[in-house]
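The protein record now logged underneath.
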Amino acid sequence: MGKLSPISCDKAKPKTGRDRLLPDGDGLYLRVRPHGTKTWILDYEFRGKRRKPTIGSFDSNGAPGESISEWLRHGRLSIAQARSIAGNWKAARRAGHDAYVEWEAQLAKEAGDVAEVAAAKAAEAAQPTVSDAVNQFMSKHMGGKKSAPAIRYRLDLLAGILGDRKISTLKRQDVIAALETIAEGRRIDSDGKRVPAKQLAGEVLIQAKRVWRFAEAREWVSTSCIERLTRRDFDAKPVKRSTVLRIDEVVELWRALNDSQRCKSDPVTIAALKLVTLTGQREREVTDAEWSEFDLDAGIWKIPANRTKKERAHLVHLAPQSVKILTELKTLTGKTAFVFASPIKEGQPIFGRSIAAALGKMFSRGALPNVTKCHVHDLRRTLITRLPDLGIEPFMGHKIANHVLPGVLAHYNHAEYLEQRKEALEKWADRIETLAAQTNVIQLQRPAA
């Protein structure tokens, strides 16, 4: 039996300035601190190493539970519970193991497990959602690019369905389900234009793959779950345009642009549509052009890399007809930075789709009855296709359009063909102008392939 009793423990008084140790037996002591706090300690030696661990505080009522581990976790021990622990651990030492060290190791492991779980939860919480990944992708890769609004629109369709989900938790079926939802329910694109929903879903997939590659590079996902996904997996096939106008149709369009009764658009938009027709450059490359890019005396237009689709600076020769259009336009917009300055929004160019709308209105109003219905980009394809009819090498149209030549040509042929490109665009403009001045236009060129 120990030397202490519940009453003596309860009535034990502290000493001034130092601890008071009251022995009980089996290395168990009641320690009374100078300020009156009472704790249980063990004093023992095991394999040459002395220890004095605290096992809990004194409480006459003790801890709830029936096991030593429950008592130790509670931390408030009665004299009977403290004696039980001391006796049990003494027996363990005699059996060759230190129960106190084992208990500390167990607590450390549990603490480590808790910390590991907490770290895992924190890591999971830090994982970006689909919306986060889209926003970071747009900020880091699409900032300032002219295609950013269209790409943002498509990615927002996906984020509208999966935006709150952690990108690391998504499976391929999740993305397919979202794309199928888009394919079934969307009919309008970012410009308010009606498009096949399945086509739009396919365009969303293309941009989603870019976001997942972005996430993979940052180790938000181990591998992209949609890299091998194709449009046919959810029946969204691209609609490839192949419209090419005949030369007589191009001439008829040119006549309409010069007829205020047939074309009701403002002079700036008309000038932009004419320049697209004569140069074969992309809509936004034309509509966003600045006067600083042009040398009208030399007949040169230098498009900076940051305004081209492939981010390659491009030189465009201006036929005399193009120079005349720009010279006349300068009286309207010459005091602004933009060649095709918006007549509505100060300090901005006309919107890229303005010329598409102008062309569409001429068709809808019946102003082009003898012209195949087409889009602005078809004028670019028409120029590339029809130049060979003027005796121009077929690849020259692609050089004018700033395309990368195919196959071995791209690898070995780095020539710019500046003089040949100039000659080609001048022949193209002369042919249109000459035929537009005639009463009848005869179709001479071969049909488009």
In short: The first strand starts at residue 20 and ends at 25. Strands lie at 20-25, 28-32, 38-42, 44-46, 49-51, 54-58, 76-77, 294-295, 300-303, 314-317. Residues 255 and 397 are 24 Å apart (CA to CA). The chain has three domains: 6-97, 130-234, 247-436.
